């Protein structure tokens, strides 16, 4: 029985992190898939969302500014807004320029954000990071939540304490995973609507033939900034969820560009850029591969170090992690060259004006 | 005139700034050439620099086992060939397939290469810092005594003299190549207009190869100069250099090698001088924000003058 | 009958899937200036690019001195002696005049210096500006650079895509004068022109292109005098 709980919890954690990555990938899909904007600073937007959420929702602390102990949804919402503001700033400067400049600027802003997080120790606790970030559902079992409203309306702190003691200590896991998947689904539905709405068709038109879109009087730059900001807001939300999942965030290892920006890109490209379902599929697929390969490699290293006692398994372990990253990189190159449209190719929204022979044909490998 | 303040300013801010500037300049030359000729921002450039430094260290270590003590500038020569091969191989297998497509795909591929090369280095050499050369670099005595006698003492270790001399030689050689040789002129021509170069009959593939070789040599020198200066090998150093190098290339104007040199020197100086106590006794800007200086300059440039100081290509 | 230097035989070609040339046939004989005229979008420039292998040719052949060069890559075509001057962006603006000409001589095995001197004689304006950046020259002078650059190789034929577009009448005359001088050096010329009247004036023969196929063929003077063509293209003073 215990073992099954273990598998169940592993599955839940796959769904949780996979879901968070799926939200990142959906955000990226708005920027890249819809609008063709090359953002390699995903990690920066994630950090803005995560830190905003963390500082707003944690209990008052001497290590960093706040925490302000605000309700969790407010933290997440402000995280989105902050991320959107940063994106707006970058977008206003770079979107009128060629895509390469946006790439450079996004990678730059991500580094600057990390620099600020590292250096402004009074605000962010610097490299030591922010701890005890409240996680949805689990946070109800914290005293500061159940001893204040609205929970205090329904029971005394003693009752709540007894109630949470009676639950298995992983009670929050299915709820947390479920909430993340629900958020992911809501974002997915909203993006699907946006994609088939005039806004989405306009984005496609701009991406495929910018001069024509410009000539027909469309404010291309404005539309692009919109897509960039919306995508960044989604990434900020994913960052806030990421912070909840981890509960402790710090600038360097948590927000490693390889593990956030790069993995998200591989997910989107594998799943199929321009296709929201593809983004979700790619995220779960890559995350499962990533997570399962860690288990496999750890097992293999244990096995090897049993035979060769001179080897230090911890060294092998770190090196194997890099080897994994390298293989993911090669996977990305293979997808880019051989399967540029991914598993689920983009389906162009049916437009009342488009002629039939064009519809649905884009994105298919030529 | 040469009081304690000026002594401190020149020796502890100006010279380190110029050293850093030389390193950025060499790196930015490669970036600006690839951007100008192949039309894409190569995100893997910093990692190739980094791997070049590791290769140089390895050559030195192997020679060390054989009882030879090689100067980094000597060990760099065989390592340069490997780096050029790495550049050419990367181009052949990862960039060339996208030559006729939207350039953003190549940018993506180079972004992937960035991770692949760094991970490879981490697999081979491990993620931890490695001492490149040990010991404290002593100032060059002849220079110190001479400048001390004329009342403007400069204390500069030999490694900095090597870096200045090396940069100067490379920049002069590059100038000769671009202005006097056939392939160099063709590189400028392709940078000017690839389509016209194509219908003029210029062998664009050869020009691209030459670009990688020139960029490889400069990147190699930049990587080795960097570790000669910091005396420390780190797998993150390539990524750390990337933003200042891009900033230098954009500042100087894309496709303008001399612009990249000027841009590199300006960025290097600005980073070091930003920590000088210009007002009051504290550093103007916390040293932790040095990288931010490059980014700030780049952002201002993109707003005010995206074509750069030397009127490079603006897209 | 003499063998034509260049001939396009029943060509069907276009960009990707879009067919622009439907059935095009034309030829250029030695020592001839041949003009292609026609309304916008008739496929005049496309016809020229099809020679260079820059297009997707679905049917028909291109022959150079009887040799089939259909679908040969541009670089090979140029090595075979077809020189092409694009309509716009036809000089390297950051290179000096001399460097531009040197680039033009890329496929020339030797004798570059001598050829340079010959070009300075043919284009005296360029001689004194040889060390200036081509980007600093006027439109007409740039056109001269572009033509000189194309002639740096021993061209078997010179293709000019609208050499007088956007130039003042003074320069137009000068360019057409130079074109005749080039012909006298023994290089046949195929020229695409908007300024139909002037172009036909210097041409030995002309083709009128409409909708990707040749509609009229004749001598330069004959076409210029044809009332129907005059009504179609020449009336507007273009």
Which key features would you list for this structure?
heterotrimer; A: 366 residues; mainly alpha; 15 helices; disordered C terminus; C: alpha/beta; Rossmann fold; 2 domains; six-stranded mixed β-sheet; four-stranded antiparallel β-sheet; 26% strand
- State the CATH topology of the largest domain in chain C: Rossmann fold
Pair with the most extensive interface? A-B, 41 and 44 residues
Q: How confident is the prediction overall: mean pLDDT of chain A?
A: 85
The CATH H-level superfamily of the largest domain in chain C is P-loop containing nucleotide triphosphate hydrolases
What is the gist of this entry?
The complex is a heterotrimer of chains A (366), B (315) and C (238). Chain A has 366 residues and is an all-alpha fold. Chain A has a domain at 9-255.
Could you please describe the fold and organization of this structure?
Chain A has 366 residues and is mostly helical. Helices cover 70% and strands 0% of the residues of chain A. Chain A has a domain at 9-255. Chain B has one domain (4-304): Orthogonal Bundle (ABC transporter involved in vitamin B12 uptake, BtuC). In chain B, strands 1-2 form a two-stranded antiparallel sheet. Chain C has 238 residues and is an alpha/beta fold. Chain C folds into 2 domains: 1-81 and 155-238, P-loop containing nucleotide triphosphate hydrolases (Rossmann fold, 3-Layer(aba) Sandwich), CATH 3.40.50; 89-151, no CATH class. The longest helix of chain C has 16 residues, at 169-184. Chain C starts with 5 loop residues before the first strand and ends with a helix. Chains in contact: A-B, B-C. Chain A binds chain B through residues 36, 38, 40, 93-94, 97-101, 103-105, 107-109, 111-112, 115, 118-119, 257-258, 262, 265, 269, 315, 318-319, 322-323, 325-326, 328-330, 332-333, 336-337, 340, and chain B through 35, 40-41, 43, 94, 97-98, 103-105, 107-109, 111-113, 115-116, 118-120, 122-123, 126-127, 239, 242-243, 246-247, 250, 286, 288-289, 291-292, 295, 298-299, 302-303, 306, 314-315.
